[in-house]
Predict the 3D structure of the following.
Amino acid sequence: MPRLKYASVLRVVVILGLFCLWVQIMLSASNGVIDRDGDELMNLNDTSEQVLALVPPELHKYLTVHYKNITVNSTERANAKNVSDIRRAIQRYNEAQTIYNEDIFGPVQNDTIIIAIQVHTRLTYLRHLIVSLAQARDIDKTLLVFSHDYYDEEINSLVRSIDFTKVMQIFYPYSIQTHPNEFPGVDPNDCPRDVRLEQAIKLKCNNAHHPDLHGHYREAKYTQTKHHWWWKANRIFNQLQCTAGHTGMVVFLEEDHYVAEDFIHMLHLLKSTADRSCPHCEILCLGTYLKTYQYHTNGDKRKQLSLSYIQQVRAANEERRRKMQDMQWNYQVYPYLYSSNQKVEITPWHSSMHNMGMVFNRTVWKNIMELQEQFCAYDDYNWDYSLLHLSQNRPKRDKFKVILCKGPRVFHIGECGIHHKKSNCNASTVISKVQKLLQNAKSYMYPSRVSAIVSAGGAKHNKKLTKGNGGWGDIRDQELCTNMTKVDRQMRKYIYVA
């Protein structure tokens, strides 16, 4: 009898242990997202109580994770619709050009501020960007255009739940997702990135005779960002019905940005100051990168794929953080934000310093379009450095000039993603620091005026690019880029062929 009782207890303990293990596995699975390239992006439920405490309760809905829609791998999420279904859905949405909430907030006017947001798969960051936009004054007078290069039902549901202004979705139709085994995605016959020219020719792989300036061959996940940015701008200025006569400002944001509540107010101040003090300023800029975090570098970001390079960067960053821990995100970092006499700066535009919260209108876009061949042919997979090359080589014109907020109104919160890999990636860490910074600066928001200072820029501003970062040597990328501005049947083979 004791033996039977002992066996029964043992069975119960084993069953309970297995159940606990199953629960732990399921929780781990529900919290993680792996993108199609195998990169762990972040935890979906990565919103701490500290962050939520600074978000108005009525906006918590944008941070709510619906677990019933989550699977472990985003490839599985994509397979809920096959590639043909996704292509047809993209075609349908792009042709419809639906503007959500137009019945509530009125039609798009020619001077409506358009906020173009480039979206990939970083859902947590996108949620917080939307929360920050929802708190901005006069956001109800804008049009948010979300431009996606990845079709995902949960992202779509989040975007369409926005109820504080007009919203439109556009879908980049030449994505890796919709072309998984062919260009512009990864063709099985593409040359390996690091193969030598002589070996590539022997292999007879695609584009064997045209490596980039560093001797490397294309990587689709890097070329896609430049393609997407170029397509998005062309789509907004040249192809949408609601913007056919638009002459107002277009603000360029990304999914991992965060805006201050007075960013639209500051945008108007920048515009009026430019009209008065710098009529030749073509670009406005609302953001800047943090002085104590090296989010954006001039070098080839693809070098971070090297393990030794990652270790070196991590070691340097950790040392920098230890030394600067007491200075991060405080008055010393952003003295211009905490000032009753806030300043704006007029200076030559530089890609790595003035590409966040960048603003321009149709007139500037037409100037860019005049040199589209330079943009598309320049061997650099970064859209901003390609624009810098264009700016530095404009015939009979000076380089682009920018007028920017010395106290930024757009922040970069994306520590996790394609160029920023961290072993412990927690979105809440940076987001909470931005929230606290803006909370401390609240009394200095909405300045009635700003004073402009003119700067020639440092050596970095004035140094002419001698060569790009590479990654754009493939003739197919250059042709696709050029053809995006042309409405012809040739492009349809990339879009709708199932």
